[in-house]
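yo

u said u wanted the structure for the complex thing, so here. seqs first:
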Amino acid sequence: MRHDFLDSHSRLDSPVHRLPAGIKLASALLFVFLLVLAPLPACVPIAAVLVVVALLSRLPASFLVKRLLLLEPFVLGVAVLTLFQPHGIEVFAAIVARSTLCLFTMLLLSSTTPFAELLCVLKRMRVPALLVTTLALMYRYLFVLMDEGERMQRARACRTFERRRWHGWKALGTVAGQLFVRSTERAERIYAAMLARGWK
Amino acid sequence: MHIPDGFLDAKTAVTTGVLATAGVGWSLRQARQKLPARRVPLLGLAAAFIFAAQMLNFPVAGGTSGHLIGGVLAAVLVGPGAAVVVLTSVLILQCFLFNDGGVTALGANIFNMALVAPLAGYTIYRSVHRLTTGLRGMVLAAAFACWGATVLAAVCCAGQLALSGTVPWGKVFPAMTGVHMLIGIGEGAITALVLAAVARTRSELIEEGAPATLRKSYREVLVYGLLLSLGLALFVAPFACGWPDGLEKVAGALGFEHRAAEKAIIPAPLPDYGIPGVRSAPWVTAVVGATGTMVAFGVAWLLARALTPKEER
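structre next:
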């Protein structure tokens, strides 16, 4: 399994990738707030800036389009509800345009900045240490656990043959439950390792 | 249920942001004081587990598949206070890494899915669990609590969308609640399956999570209860009854209203929410709600029967 499927392009090299993470985070947040609050015509120059950033970052266009299309159903799913009112079409179009631009901004941020650097910025911004530790551990072990889950599911698929859906669900539930048991055991080992290295 | 950017207006985004920060800040404070140091890595691992478990797709009829949200599951496995931290981490990672859920809506998403779902879900879980015994009671309580928590979070989400003026309440409430009444059944089933599996192998893990928080501390119950009722009062009450909209007043006083009005690109949907033919809606909603609750409880009960071996009943 590819372990970097979440932020696969964040470690490339380009002028945008080399910018400090703090500046990228701040400008992405600024852009999103502008996009949400500004009148719609004002969004056009912001969109132009975003396209320039995307070109500078040398991210493959196919990756950006694919990712946007993957996430668009989530936007459309909520936006459909706006159609049922007077001027529904206009509201729908405005909201979808805004949301997609915001999505594009955050997509650029997450695919030009490694998550660890974002965490450093959060730490400097005095986000409580416990939350940052949780996020860091989560990101570190996410791929390990997903790998483990996938291995267990493959093992189950090799050993059980069952046409009835209920049994499939039950087996999947067992896989997930076992995954939790294994992650608590792993957490205990990690704690011992942290203590051994002088963590307080 | 992840709200993307652009669906909430300034006043709703700010209010949900404040409520979410207060709730998460409080649970972080509680965790720092009470959580034993050896359970700190468990928070990160539990968050990674919830994220990984969301990737396991359960096949539902006709090629579609459902997956876990995990609010009640986390609350039962690591305790409600820690679950708030765990789910907040999951939502932050989804927002910044996977771009699921907006940044301006992060407060609202945290409020709905990391505060309302685990805390309200855990309250339902404990009260149902008190009436029943054994593994079967646990599974029944968890499955029903999952359904209740999912629906309640959806109601909050609908309230926030309607309050922002993006979608009329008369449309968004039935749509969100209806869909999540179905999703809640799936969520309850998956949670029950996972909990039954954990209970079969390491039952002490579930007991260990429960007494860590919220059981004996009345102050904690009070703070969380106050936060949730404040949220419900702000987001749902303006539509559910004839009370004056407190938030509108606050927004007017703080000057948000002016800014919201400037943004004329989104016209006010049905000025006073007077939708023709909705006069009887409260009755219908109440009846549908009650029926839905009964059905969900029945499904949870059947599930608990199916999942527990005979000798443990």
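The longest helix of chain B spans residues 169-201. The domain at 10-236+288-312 of chain B is CATH 1.10.1760.20 (Arp2/3 complex 21 kDa subunit ARPC3).
cya
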